[in-house]
Specification:
Number of helices: 15
CATH topology of the largest domain: Rossmann fold
Radius of gyration: 24 Å
Catalytic activity: DNA(n) + a 2'-deoxyribonucleoside 5'-triphosphate = DNA(n+1) + diphosphate
CATH class of the largest domain: Alpha Beta
Order of helices and strands: HEHHEHEHEHEHHHHHHHHH
GO molecular function: 3'-5' exonuclease activity; DNA binding; DNA-directed DNA polymerase activity
Protein name: DNA polymerase III subunit delta'
Shape: elongated
Mean pLDDT: 92
Domain DNA polymerase III delta subunit C-terminal: 207-321
Domain DNA polymerase III subunit delta' AAA+ ATPase lid: 166-205
CATH superfamily of the largest domain: P-loop containing nucleotide triphosphate hydrolases
CATH architecture of the largest domain: 3-Layer(aba) Sandwich
Amino acid sequence: MKYPWLNIPYHQLVVHYATGRGHHALLLHAAAGNGDDTLAYALSRWLLCQQRNGEKICGECHSCRLMLAGNHPDYHLLVPEKGKNSVGIEPIRQVIERLYSHAQQGGAKVIWLSQAELLTEAAANALLKTLEEPPEKTYFLLGCREPSRLLATLRSRCLYWHLVSPDEQLSMQWLSRHAAGNPIEHLTALRLHDGAPIAAEQLLQPERWQQRSALCSALSAALPQHDMLSLLPVLSHLDVGERLHWLCALLVDAMKWQQGAPSHVLNQDQQPLVHQLASRLSGISLPQIVQQWLICRHQLLSVVGVNRELLLTEQLLGWEQMLSAASYSPLHSL
């Protein structure tokens, strides 16, 4: 297995299917960057292999070769159509139609949908009947980030499986071999992504890490001058959701610092900045700021056609006004 923390869940899932206890519809709940797509692909290869040896695939049968070539006719990927951010009813209908014909390789049929939250309500409803009464030897693997966003009727037809983030020490060992940076930076990247090693490794890429560092530097320079509008150039990008995640994480860390829990901050590499935020912003106002930024982030990510720069400008100007208000007393004066 490419990622060592997937070995145990892979073994557990394969044993379930090998002993006849595997469910035809698996709901795989995982944080982004934990390797759920790799796990689902490995399980798919096992289900489709025609000459398995226990929990190992043969790698030689025609089905295995087709999977390696990326053109297995009984392995179906459900992804949004080009230019769309959801999976509509038509791709579901097409897949279901193919499922009710015989497997072209005479074995199993596997459907992988990496983010079931992307299903429109009509698409989810179209999938329900097939999930309830699937064709023989048909397996649905549904990934999700937030199960609560799925239809309850869809969840009830699946076996729920939570792929937890690996132990922090194991992830740190893996990052030491595969990522740039030092241990403090590795720990920070892990904690910013709920312990997901692959997401942490992506954040630690030099260009990405520099973008986060630029935001931290801009915030440190803006605070003494109450010039929060100067943050606009480092926030207003296509990846604004992640950049606001970095900002909110720093503000929440400042709340932890005020509560005397510096060892629990996510941004271990930015402790001077966290201390600066905790010293300059009051314990009453910090939660308000975080809440406002979370609302702003939700709007930017969910409202179609929203004016990103205008919304960020409004939020930053509001922050400047709050910083100048009496409620923003330094921590030592509370």
